[in-house]
Amino acid sequence: MRVGSVLARFGVDVSIVEAADRLLPNEEPEASETLETSFSSEGIAVHTGEQARQVTSQDGSFVVKLAGGTELLSERLLVTTGRKVNLSGLGLESAGLDSSRPFLQVDDHMRAADAIWAMGDVTGVAMFTHIAIYQSTIIAADILRREIPSAQYHAVPRVTFTDPEIGAVGITEAEAIAAGRDVVVVVKQLTATFRGWMHGSSYGYIKLIFERESGVLVGATVAGPQAGEMLGMLNLAVHAHLGLEALRSMIYAFPTFFGGIGEALGASGRGVTTVIDPTYQGVKLLDQFEADLVAK
Ligand SMILES: Cc1cc2nc3c(=O)[nH]c(=O)nc-3n(C[C@H](O)[C@H](O)[C@H](O)COP(=O)(O)OP(=O)(O)OC[C@H]3O[C@@H](n4cnc5c(N)ncnc54)[C@H](O)[C@@H]3O)c2cc1C
Predict the structure, then answer these.
(1) Are 190 and 263 found together in one domain?
(2) How many Å apart are CA 170 and CA 182, to the nearest integer?
(3) Contact, 210 vs 288, CB < 8 A?
(4) Is 67 contained in some domain?
(5) Which of 123, 165, 284, 291 could form a disulfide with 227 if both were Cys (CB 3.0 to 4.6 A apart)?
(6) Are 188 and 264 in contact (CB under 8 A)?
(7) pLDDT tens-place string over residues 61-75
(8) Closest ligand 1 atom, residue 80 Cα
(9) Closest Cα to atom 26, ligand 1: which residue?
(10) pLDDT at 266
(11) Cα–Cα distance between 82 and 38 in angstroms, integer?
(12) How far separated are the first and last CA of the chain, in Å rounded?
């Protein structure tokens, strides 16, 4: 996607084919909506929910046939369908490890077996450089027999470096529901924030997932300009188990993109633009949610 959007800005006619029903199936739907709106405005043709079934080469061009029958003719084809860990051929069995598994099983100090540690993509936690770096610090401390906290993955940040960017941390609303967790969801359109309006953004979202019982922030997504940078404070909040109280009572610099987080929570005093997922009955619920927390 990132490469596609760069090429489109160089004037290339770009089509993106995605088998899932949206561009970023593992992230919040609002993230995909933001990208799809932005891509469409730049002339990128987005085919979601369409599987590429067949590719043929014809006079130096490619014809990509989609499951629905559509045929896309292109001069260049970039296939980016994901990566897989391959444990075979490493001789892991000689150390008593199972190479038929999709990932190398490690404990919370990254130990795979006696005197064998593993880190990064091979552990199957999340395929990001920062996960490999984080795990490497745990391994180094373990080798030096230093006492350090075990690995924790409740606040894994994820940034999609498109323009606009998508930044996310912790769990999504769908993951919370699938896990049976009782959450309150706050959604704010970036256009309805001071900075979003000044920037002239016509798309973008801030979405916050709070655990209802404790008020703790357990997940967050920002879709829009500088979303990866905005994610910083939300990353800290999820990591440190901060909640509505901390996020609502802090002072936000005006007019910043991250100030939109305060606006989403009514911290700016305007209190009129907070939107909560309609299934949660609107603003009233945020007030009720806060009242319940105060009452405890
Ligand atoms: C196109 C692309 C863009 C990405 N962008 C980002 C990003 O923006 N941010 C981010 O956080 N992550 C990004 N990632 C993911 C990131 O690159 C990986 O998560 C990260 O490199 C994982 O580190 P690693 O050490 O586990 O594996 P690698 O970095 O893949 O290192 C594994 C090394 O092991 C070597 N190796 C393999 N088999 C053997 C063997 N038998 N003997 C010896 N050596 C061997 C390989 O050659 C390789 O050098 C991106 C990945 C791709 C493909």
Answers:
(1) yes
(2) 15
(3) no
(4) yes
(5) 165
(6) yes
(7) 999 999 999 999 999
(8) 1
(9) 120
(10) 77
(11) 23
(12) 46
Range of the domain at 118: 100-143
Dihedral Cα 234, 218, 196, 268, nearest 10 deg: -90
Answer whether 168's CB lies under 8 Å from 157's CB.
Answer: yes
CA dihedral 238, 216, 275, 160 (to 10 degrees): 10
Residues 106-114 have a mean pLDDT of: 96
Q: Is 269 left (phi over 0), alpha (psi -120 to 50) or beta?
A: left
| Nearest Cα to Cα of residue 172 among 206, 205, 204, 209 | 209
Name the domain boundary from 85, 111, 143. 143
Amino acid 134: pLDDT: 98
Residue 135 lies in a domain: yes
207-231: pLDDT as tens digits: 999 998 899 999 999 999 999 999 9
- Taking CA atoms only, the protein residue closest to ligand 1 atom 53 is 83
Q: Is residue 149 part of a domain?
A: no
Query: What tokens were used for 49?
Result: 């929910």
Can you give the C-alpha Rg of the chain in angstroms?
22
Mutate to test the pocket of ligand 1, among 127, 138, 158, 165 (most ligand atoms within 8 A of CB): 127
151 inside domain: no
Ligand 1 centre distance from Cα of residue 121 (Å): 7
Q: How close is the Cα of 114 to the center of ligand 1, in Å? A: 24
Domain count, the chain: 3
